[in-house]
Amino acid sequence: MRNTRAIDHNTWMQRALRLAAKAGARDEVPIGALVVREGRVLGRGYNLRETKNRPTAHAELLAIEAAARKTGAWRLEETTLYVTLEPCVMCWGAILLARIPRVVYGAADPKAGVCGSVLSLHEEERFNHHPEVLNGVLAEECGKILSDFFKGLREGKKKKERWPSV
């Protein structure tokens, strides 16, 4: 991959976190993603599963689709995908199909992550494409936005249970 600019993973992940915050403000699970090439954002996305009522409206897929539209190509070579949470199996499939050469993620996903948490698909040699994976970039911040969101949901549920509507 050609690198014409210094890569600052923290800066890009902070931008992905801002997208995650947008998702959280819409009562969506706060996950954000960016597709970047040579210092330019080609696509961005944040979770919209509830808003769009689509199980496939993950941040990564929306960012990948936006990048493909912007470039006019499905092959997103020489790009980096930044995402606040470790990709799931569906998103990993899209990463492979789009030929994204590098994935940088923040928090691990012990329930659905396929880059070392539940599975290690990034190490599967039988695939025809092998993206480089860098994990743990701003992991604490990426994990906190998720844990705060789910804590808020639990507290809201408890309040509803204590104060049922009549």
Short account of what is shown:
The chain is of the alpha/beta class and 166 residues long. The chain has helices spanning 9-25, 49-52, 59-71, 89-97, 139-162, and strands spanning 32-37, 40-46, 80-85, 102-107, 132-134. 40% of the residues lie in helices and 17% in strands.
The major sheet is characterized as: 5 strands, mixed
Give unreliable regions as ranges. 1-6
Q: What form results from the Cα inertia axes?
A: globular
Q: Using the CA coordinates, give the radius of gyration.
A: 16 Å
How many runs of DSSP E, i.e. beta strands? 5
| Number of helices, counting only DSSP H or I runs of 4 residues or more | 5
Q: What is the helix/strand order?
A: HEEHHEHEEH
Task: Return the average pLDDT rounded to an integer.
Answer: 92
Query: How helical, in percent, are the residues?
Result: 40-55%
Distance between the termini: 61 Å
- Approximately how much beta-strand content do the residues carry? 15-25%
**Main structural class:** alpha/beta
Taking strands numbered 1, 2, ... along the chain, how are they ordered across the largest sheet? 2-1-3-4-5
